[in-house]
């Protein structure tokens, strides 16, 4: 369901969102992933161990909050995945029997504009 640019989630999707957001470092990773970044860059930016960062990235991708935007060569010459968050805002409503989530998705136009400004 959509209202004013916000997309509401179903129960199973809401459970995945709540689980992913409840993990330590998830919010920090989402904040840092406003621009495309590798797991290594995210790990360094928020000062979290790389193994933990990879686990959180997997949870966030599974919940649809983060996506792999492509691959690029690292400074060491290895192919590495580049991630960016899929939303800018999320709203949680606890007034019902189950939490209800609404999220404001990032548009491709916003991503392209942000990439040009970097």
From TrEMBL:
Species: Natronosalvus rutilus
Segments for region (Disordered): 97-118
Protein name per UniProt: Helix-turn-helix domain-containing protein
Matching Gene3D superfamilies: Winged helix-like DNA-binding domain superfamily/Winged helix DNA-binding domain (1.10.10.10)
Taxonomic path: Archaea, Methanobacteriati, Methanobacteriota, Stenosarchaea group, Halobacteria
Compositionally biased residues, Basic and acidic residues: 105-118
SUPFAM superfamilies cross-referenced by the UniProt entry: Winged helix' DNA-binding domain (SSF46785)
